Amino acid sequence: MTCSKTSIETMAVTTALGGAEEIGAAEVLDGDRVLAAGRVRLLAWDTDFFGFPCARIEALTATGENPARYDAVRRAVADLLGWCDDRGVKFVTVKVAGPEPILVQALESRGFYVTDCTVALARDDHAPLPQSSDSLDEFSFHDRIEDHAGTALAFSGLILDGRFHNDVRISKKTADGLWQRAVLNQTRSEAREVLLMTRGADPVGLTTIKPVDPENRAGCLFFVGLRGSYQARGLGRVLLGETLYRVRGEYDRLEVETSTYNQPALRLYQGQGFKPSQVKLSLHCWR
User: Fold this and answer.
1) Which among 111, 143, 177 is the end of a domain?
2) How far is residue 258 from each of residues 53, 118, 162, 187, 216, measured CA to CA in Å?
3) CB atoms within 10 A of CB 208
4) Does 191 share its domain with 49?
5) Rounded distance between C-alpha atoms, residue 207 and residue 225, angstroms
6) Residues 80, 189: one domain?
7) What residues are paired with 213 via a beta bridge?
8) What pLDDT is stored for residue 17 in this prediction?
9) Pair 58, 47: CB distance under 8 Å
10) What range defines the domain where residue 215 resides?
11) What pLDDT is attached to residue 130?
């Protein structure tokens, strides 16, 4: 079997944050037949946070029998990584759905390693709404946030696992800081819906939702969190229920992602009508 040299096409897109993200596309061919394909995207947000170029491989696919697929993916990934090296990229991430073992093995052979296993869950708008939480007089809900930095700081330490915290090459301080920046960006501009739950002046919980497929009215429940002293008291169900009640009719489909081993989160989401749809493996590679 003769495979052509992977071809790379480069383009630039403008992000919601106003920065440019450069994209490369790769194919491994046998004549006119595509054996493997993928894209790599320079990430403006991650690059700004870490202080060096970062990228993400997307839409990695392969066809054929397993040995041929493995070889073709290795070729495609090698060229995508070469594209990254030409641009000084130091950190590359990828998510593999399925999880697809052949793709994972090919990525591992090129220096990637697994940092998380997640499950995506989805909820259709016709699913029954949870009971309204209006009777909880000691708590208040706010869809506008005045102190963005303070809110981000209050909820930055809640994520104790996930692909950044599971990567031994990233310090906990850095992983916490990344989540703090992500929450800050969500409350300032990225999320279309934000709901802050408070008890007096004390922040209790936070949810954010951002559109992911406006044409099909799909949204992503990006952040769901309760501060430590309020956890394990049934308040997660209250917070999520209130969020779903407030956005009823706004989305035909809501999606959320969590680690497969986060059983409390899985029980919460499935108890509110979310159904598992796909398992993914996250992998990282440092150059």
Assistant:
1) 111
2) 26, 5, 8, 20, 23
3) 25
4) no
5) 7
6) no
7) 218
8) 39
9) no
10) 121-278
11) 67
- Rg over alpha carbons for the chain, rounded to the nearest Å, is 21
143 and 233 co-located in one domain: yes
Q: Alpha-carbon distance 272 to 287, whole Å?
A: 41
Domain CATH number, residue 218: 3.40.630.30
Q: Are residues 70 and 42 in the same domain?
A: yes
Distance CA 25, CA 38 (A): 6
Sheet containing 193-199: which strands, arranged edge to edge? 7-14, 20-30, 33-42, 54-62, 91-97, 275-286, 113-124, 253-259, 218-226, 202-213, 193-199, 140-142
- Residues written for the chain: 287
* Total number of domains constituting the chain: 2
Query: What are the mean pLDDT values of the chain's consecutive 10-residue runs (287 residues total)?
Result: 46 43 87 92 92 95 93 95 96 92 97 95 82 68 88 77 90 90 88 90 90 85 86 86 89 92 92 92 97
Buried b / exposed e across 250-261, counting CB within 10 Å, b at 16+?
A: ebebbbbbbbee
